[in-house]
Prior knowledge:
There is one protein chain. By secondary structure, the protein is of the alpha/beta class. The protein has 3 domains: 3-86, Up-down Bundle (Four Helix Bundle (Hemerythrin (Met), subunit A)); 101-295, 3-Layer(aba) Sandwich (Rossmann fold), CATH 3.40.50; 304-475, Signal recognition particle, SRP54 subunit, M-domain (434 Repressor (Amino-terminal Domain)). The chain contains 23 helices and 8 strands. An 8-stranded mixed sheet has the order 3-2-4-1-5-6-7-8, sandwiched between helices. Strand 5 (216-222), helix 10 (227-239) and strand 6 form a beta-alpha-beta unit. Helix 10 packs parallel to helix 11 (257-266). It is flat and about 70 Å long. Residues 442-454 and 468-519 have low confidence and may be disordered.
Amino acid sequence: MFEGLSEKLSGIFDKLTGRGALSEADVDAAMREVRRALLEADVALDVVRSFVDKVRHRAVGANVVKSVTPGQMVIKIVNDVLVETLGSNADPINLDAAPPVAIMMVGLQGAGKTTTSAKIAKRLTDRMKRKVLMASLDVKRPAAQEQLAVLGRQVGVDTLPIVAGQTPVQIARRAEEAARLQGYDVVIFDTAGRTHIDEPLMLEMAEIKTAARPHEILLVADSLTGQDAVNLAKNFDDRVGITGIVLTRTDGDGRGGAALSMRAVTGKPIKLIGTGEKVDDLDDFDPSRIAGRILGMGDIVALVEKAAANIDMEKAQRAAERMRKGKFDLQDLADQLAQVEKIGGIGGIMGMLPGVAKIKDQIASANLDERVIKRQRAIIMSMTPKERRDPDILKSSRKKRVAAGSGTRVEDVNKLLKQHRQMADMMKAMGGAAGKRGPMAKMASMFGLGGGMPQPTPEQLEAMQKQLGGGMPGGLPKLPDAPPPGLFGPKPGMPGLPGLGAPKLPGLGGFNPFGGKKK
């Protein structure tokens, strides 16, 4: 969502960091560019004015102009103000109340309230071990209550049985009583929406609030609606009194202005962001991390957390043991490709790496295609278990059968087998050097290829962020010219594996599933 804004700001800061010293005129020129970039990103005008004034006030002074690296000092100041605008500190859902804790979801129709309710319920169940009950109070939209029941079964969360003819207030009271009597920790109320804000909607929300006494009232807003989302948040806050905001569809091509504006205009924290359609695609909103993404610094901490949450530790331990013995067959390869998909695919991984925004053109020229991973998994799944364990038995007739079964060509099967042989040879070399814990071994361990995947502590994550990003005044990670060495290859920049023409994948030992051609 922040790609356009990030690209414009990176261009502005590149000009600043290339100067040996900055004058007040240089800062003013840069602020004009920042102002234009924020307005084009659909940030509210009042927020833009406040933002630029704060940056200019802090940037114009001897401590910046005479600094050893004045350009980086300006970037640090922009980062600090950006974090302040987004909310300074992360503010997750507050469950500090007597159970059952009531969470009321409000918003317009089509913003994603029902799906977000299921995502939050799954998150509370899996991560916080809370017993959750969901109740649909939407009696206007056809099949809305059935939709929540289906989602409840998908995520393994209980939903309130449907009773025809009840009003939203009656359903809310029944849900609260059921949650209290049956020992639920949290009850989530999925309320009705409208295509636009109207008086009957606001009156209904006020009645539900009085009956349910929610501890949290979360506004679900579509980030693609831009300034309308800001007006929506202000109206709901004035009439109902929201405690937080959930932004949906942040994986789309929105301009990002809604996130910057809503927090500043309403004063209410953005608690969660929806990053996709899957039930696991929901992340905490951390202002410092979002600011890092906007300024092109990546988000290594989020990447590690996502890897820790999604990688199967038992499979990772088995794979690590096999690699220590120098073994790596096609089934192991399929498992590793599946893990890459679980943590967001190549695009999701690269979007969180520092400096990737600066080499956007090189990445585009590499022709990275996420579908290639699915295609290669399809080839492996079309093989028999014996063929996966012993690829040498795959002769001409077997290859034709596998190609037909996976909807690919024999050439694709041969290419996969060749790449697997290269990777297997590398694994044998790694197995022979067991016990040596170099940078690649540590990276392999991070992505589930070496010895389990314990949940890292916040201190470990912070240390890793500093180690990979370097340092700037005030703790701001350094903006590298390219991804850190060791993530994409032995040299800085975007070299890729010789003859394959695309970047290496972290945790796959240099294997490249994209099969680019050597230029």
